Amino acid sequence: MEGITNLRSLGGYRNKNQQVIKDGLIYRSGQLDQLTPAQTQYLATTLGITRIVDMRSADERHQFPDATWPHVQYHVLDVLAQVMTNDASLQSMISSTGAVHDRMVQLYEQLALDPTARQSYCQFIRLLLVPDQPLLFHCFAGKDRTGVGAALFLKILGISDEQIMADYLLTNQARAAANQQILATMASQLSDEQQRAVNQALLVDADYLSHYFEVIKARYDTFSNYLQTGLGLTSAECQQLRELYLTK
């Protein structure tokens, strides 16, 4: 079976207390718009995924609707709904001008501070507070909105910054074939400069996620303050997340 783009489990990471994230409960991926019947069966039956969290915009969902299956719960969390320019969408990657690196750094600042983004990530963590119901979350590429969601989840569970960054950067390997396909499909429509910009926009960079956490530090001082004041999560909810997803 052909692999599903950027699909991977967040299980298996070990925190400083030697607790390990349980496997088979939480997965991240790119969008699910072109699943084959075999891929759908794999998600539904082999992985037993009962819930999908879609972090894309209304336009993205309309243009590339997710494939779903019977009895799966589908949740929409439009992380960038109130942001003027959604630089995480493919259309924006194609049409935007200016330095890609600078735009992406600004995007991660919005992911940290924008009120709708903060509310969406709070809802995302709360959706995880359900025992034994495997969940898959994604955006378009599974790299920015999804990358931040994964980083939040891992950091709440006490996973080291080094492991969080390593998981984040895995996207560049996991999306290599899909990115080349996108570029090949659009080659005739784009100038060389546009192709280089889209190629860069399809990648993650350590600077982006580092800036996300730097912004949190500057605005909220500590990650705990960000969780409680910025996202509105309680300490009890964060503890419940740890109890549900970490081995004893």
From TrEMBL:
Which EC number(s) does the record attach to this protein?
Answer: 3.1.3.48
Its signal peptide is none
Give the similarity note.
Answer: Belongs to the protein-tyrosine phosphatase family.
Please give the Pfam families that the UniProt record associates with this protein: Y_phosphatase3 (PF13350)
Output the CDD domains linked to this UniProt entry: TpbA-like
Question: A Gene Ontology MF term for this entry?
Answer: protein tyrosine phosphatase activity
Specify the superkingdom. Bacteria
- Keyword match Hydrolase: yes
> What is the protein name given in its UniProt record?
Protein-tyrosine phosphatase
Asked whether the keyword DNA damage is assigned, the reply is: no
InterPro entries attached to this UniProt entry: Prot-tyrosine_phosphatase-like, Tyr/Ser_Pase_IphP-type, Tyr_Pase_AS
Q: Which PANTHER family is this protein grouped with?
A: TYROSINE SPECIFIC PROTEIN PHOSPHATASES DOMAIN-CONTAINING PROTEIN, TYROSINE-PROTEIN PHOSPHATASE
Q: Which UniProt keywords apply?
A: Hydrolase
Q: Which organism is it from?
A: Lactiplantibacillus plantarum (strain ATCC BAA-793 / NCIMB 8826 / WCFS1) (Lactobacillus plantarum)
